[in-house]
Amino acid sequence: MGTLTIGNIVELKEFDHRRFLLTKKTEGGFGIVYFLQSLSNIPNCVMKTYKNQVSKEDIEKESFAWAQLGKHKNIAAFLCYGTIDNIPYVLSERYPNTLEDLIENPKTTEEVKVIFNDVVSGLNYAKKKLNLVHRDIKPNNIFIDKNGIPKIGDFGLAVYEKFEYKLDTNFKSYTKYSSKTEGDFGGTLPFIAPELFGTSNFSFTTSTDIYALGITFFLLFSEGLLPYDIKEHVIFQNAFERFSMNCKDLEFKNIILKCIELNPQKRFSEYNEFFIEDNDNPPDYELAEVINTIQLLRREKKTEQALEYAKEKLREKPANPLLINQLALVYNDKKDEKTFEFVLSDYLDNVKIEYDFTMYY
Question: pTM of the entire structure?
Fold first, then answer.
């Protein structure tokens, strides 16, 4: 690894051949992180490489999930995936601090509430967009930018939560009745929910991420003292006393305590149970549900039902490009280009049809 030596200048071909000075190196359980000082007009970056026990497939999976998330103010900026010295790396923007720094330099309760809501906004976005479970929420995986805005990073253990659904008899809607995740056991011990231990049938869910979130923010008020030792079945009363003394908002205090409930049945299971989006243009989750239904019908080979459902929803949202995309995919299933042209003319004026269906994927 001759190139990756502190003080060397590296050129990253996958990132427009930008050049950086390597200034610092840190190691974790599975990865090695290099701090890169930009030698051009772009921000400083961090480059994460991986130790031998991590497969290239897992590295690509992390990159793909992170890239798919796109831009969100509370998700650390993914820049590119590439190789250097034949070693895969993930490049992301570099931030000056993490939440861990706030344990030693505490903020007021109101300031922590703002950070908490921002972090939940990012997690909720990842859940709604990709059904993503992070699995490694902890203070040093939540970065703080120069403006004090938190950014969730390190998606190396993230998995997709998969749901099983029941369609109603009219094929108009579906009900979620179970969920599961696939992947090896992973995470950082104090932040792993207790129900994941002692069973081979574990499943990481939004609830287990919420537990890790709660422990993370508990630490900001307990002066770094953990509430529990799960392995030893110990509850630390002095940690709860410091937490109660330092957290000045009763409602916020109760939210954090419910996040770290040891019994998952008493814990929050979804972010919308304690988080209300307050941005001016919230994501259209109703549309996401419609698209999920169309895709579910397609997977079950119910093409005609998918077609009728997509047409009905397109009438409700005329000219919506995502629904047009879904309609095109259904007609691609049918291999019926003429009908596709006819149907589109019902919704759009002056439609020019291109018969290369790959353009809709």
Answer: 0.71
